[in-house]
Amino acid sequence: MSTGLEIRGGAGPFEAAAVAAVVQHVLETERALRQRPPAGSNTPPAWVRAALPRNPEDPIEWVFPDHRGDPL
What is the pLDDT of residues 9-34, one digit of tens each? Predict the structure, then answer.
């Protein structure tokens, strides 16, 4: 594994392998979390909900903008 990771300070090969395994696990976990949609996203975004037809007898439901999809 040659990712440019340098471990200094007296770490032997076993300690270096353990550190590299932890770093690899953290990177894979973060990558998997970025690819998964956020929890609780069963409702469509606000711009879709605003255009959906509604029953005239239902009370008006305010559709507040959300920021899903923004690169924040």
Answer: 887 888 888 988 999 999 999 988 88
CA distance linking residue 1 with residue 18, whole number of Å:
13
pTM of the model: 0.44
CA distances from 32 to 8, 20, 22, 37, 59 (A): 29, 18, 15, 10, 40
- DSSP characters over 7-66: --SS--HHHHHHHHHHHHHHHHHHHHHHHSPPTT--SPPHHHHTTS---TTSPP------
Contact 63, 49 (CB under 8 A): yes
Name the token pair of 27: 């990177």
